[in-house]
Amino acid sequence: MPARATVVAGLLFGLFSSACDAGRSTPAAPTLPTGDATNEGSNDDVGADDGLGPTPVDANGHLQVLNGQLSNEAGDPVQLKGVSSMWLNWESQAYAENATALRWMRNNWKLSVIRAAMGVEPAGAYLDQPDVAKAQVYAVVDHAIEAGVYVLVDFHAHKAFEHQDDAVAFFSEVAAKYSGSPNVIYETYNEPVGIGWADLKKYHEAVVAAIREQDADAPIVLGTPNYSQNVDLAAADPVAGTNLLYTLHYYACTHKASLRQKGDVALGLGAALFVTEWGATAADGGLDGVVCQDEAQAWDDWLNGHKLSWTAWKLDGCEPDASCLLMPGAPVDGGWTDDYLHGHGRFVRGRMQE
User: Fold this and answer.
1) In this structure, are residues 202 and 164 in contact, taking their beta carbons and an 8 Å threshold?
2) Bridge-partner residues for 246, per DSSP?
3) Which ranges constitute the DSSP H helices of the chain?
4) Tens of pLDDT along 179-231?
5) pLDDT for 51-86, tens place per residue?
6) Assigned CATH for 44-353
7) Could you tell me which of 321, 327, 249, 325 has the C-alpha nearest to residue 285?
8) 0.85 exceeded by the pTM?
9) Which residues are catalytic?
10) Which residues have C-beta within 8 Å of that of residue 183, sequence separation ≥ 6?
């Protein structure tokens, strides 16, 4: 669990039953970690300095969607790999907003994208303290631009359709601020709950229109029904427009081949996918401490086979939940050797460094 009061954790796990740290079902007989060091990446540390070579944005420029594939400015397929912040309103420390940590992950973990998960509905989040929430997001985005990596601006909500006007206002402001930046990718709705695709599509159409009034070309990632799992339904009736992708979320102890099959259906229908959140854990964020590395590797093989981009949940220091990448008290500015990594942290690092 993140380092916050138990009562607040109860709100997260009780009110927001999502893959973002709340279970939808209990995993059956999870596979224990293999402990294979070749799968866990390297501790080699080259620091956080600039100038070690082209940054991800230097190498790829403005992103676009071509023939159902996220592609770079030259039209070549691109696979971004990175991490998601914790709900920014619930971070134990400001890991995601630290510029040195971001450059360190770029240099050492080969990170090419970071996700700014702006909590919307809980106390202390966007609807409650909009100026604080936006300042956190802007810090992540500005540091990503400085570091030459991509950044997902995530409206991290489960009932965003109830706050469509707020979403339109937020994305209108962000898109006006960063219009034309090759770094910025918009994620309009983290994990929709309690809404079918027909109505969810109307929400996306409104938010996409607001973004496009300010930024005609930036990629936009759209949440899909049932905690961003039913990508097949979205692909069968897509939102009109260019440079649009759909979100698929998975947690390897809970979600297995049947969810990959939904992804295959969506890809077969021509949809572009972006896995903006995943864990090698159960869907509750791994409260049992188990990492299902074999199944997580099956997912990674699938992602690589389709060249799908991803951000892993979550850049925070907490326990026991195995989806925390860092141990409690890990330095805020990077330098995270094995001693600081927690849960699926080594596995995630290894997948980025491949």
Assistant:
1) no
2) 222, 273
3) 6-15, 56-60, 99-104, 130-147, 164-178, 197-214, 225-228, 231-236, 257-268, 293-306, 345-353
4) 999 999 999 999 999 999 999 999 999 999 999 999 999 999 999 999 999 99
5) 999 999 999 999 999 999 999 999 999 999 999 999
6) 3.20.20.80
7) 321
8) yes
9) 191, 277
10) 57, 141, 144, 145, 148, 149, 150, 151
